[in-house]
């Protein structure tokens, strides 16, 4: 089964800036899904049991939790209930090996926002994660435009003054966060939270380096402004 999912990852091209927690006890499958979502410029954390999932959602803000229903230590149903009880804006995409309609209905009645039976096409999983991620934020046009920059999250394309700009996944994710902020200042910590996963050292200079590279690729005149002691804005 894991090989089937891994092969499906190779044709993936679209992107979006969403922070995701993947909770799946089949480690090869979980890691393959996480790798694929990261290629879509998403920040992804991975755990392999329900207890670890509860720990993560208690300390991190996730847009979407991709949650296997049959988990060790704490059942996926209980993880879903806890997320609902905490009143989080997090959206839950529940996975199961069972394709029974009754199981899907039961999962949705628990509070899951969407339900996907295994085996699934990775392109469908990505589309569902992206759609759920949009529900956690204020609705914005599908194509973002600001300061002469046009960014299409679905096609993962960026243009400046009509000229296409080729960006690496993290550069694209940082630019999207800044554009979605509509001129407000975004701190380095917020960029780390949205564009990288929890294993990133909070004291690293990766944000500064990525912004520097992004500025260079976007060209002159500079559009990303550094606000000393606060962060960045466009």
Automatic annotation (TrEMBL):
<dbReference type="GO" id="GO:0000976">
    <property type="term" value="F:transcription cis-regulatory region binding"/>
</dbReference>
<dbReference type="InterPro" id="IPR001789">
    <property type="entry name" value="Sig_transdc_resp-reg_receiver"/>
</dbReference>
<dbReference type="GO" id="GO:0032993">
    <property type="term" value="C:protein-DNA complex"/>
</dbReference>
<dbReference type="GO" id="GO:0005829">
    <property type="term" value="C:cytosol"/>
</dbReference>
<keyword id="KW-0805">Transcription regulation</keyword>
<protein>
    <recommendedName>
        <fullName>Transcriptional regulatory protein CutR</fullName>
    </recommendedName>
</protein>
<comment type="function">
    <text>Member of the two-component regulatory system CutS/CutR, involved in the regulation of copper metabolism. CutR suppresses a defective melC1 gene, encoding a putative copper-transfer gene, probably by altering copper metabolism.</text>
</comment>
<keyword id="KW-0597">Phosphoprotein</keyword>
<dbReference type="InterPro" id="IPR011006">
    <property type="entry name" value="CheY-like_superfamily"/>
</dbReference>
<dbReference type="InterPro" id="IPR039420">
    <property type="entry name" value="WalR-like"/>
</dbReference>
<keyword id="KW-0902">Two-component regulatory system</keyword>
<dbReference type="Pfam" id="PF00486">
    <property type="entry name" value="Trans_reg_C"/>
</dbReference>
<dbReference type="InterPro" id="IPR036388">
    <property type="entry name" value="WH-like_DNA-bd_sf"/>
</dbReference>
<keyword id="KW-0238">DNA-binding</keyword>
<dbReference type="GO" id="GO:0006355">
    <property type="term" value="P:regulation of DNA-templated transcription"/>
</dbReference>
<dbReference type="GO" id="GO:0000156">
    <property type="term" value="F:phosphorelay response regulator activity"/>
</dbReference>
<keyword id="KW-0804">Transcription</keyword>
<dbReference type="Pfam" id="PF00072">
    <property type="entry name" value="Response_reg"/>
</dbReference>
<dbReference type="InterPro" id="IPR001867">
    <property type="entry name" value="OmpR/PhoB-type_DNA-bd"/>
</dbReference>
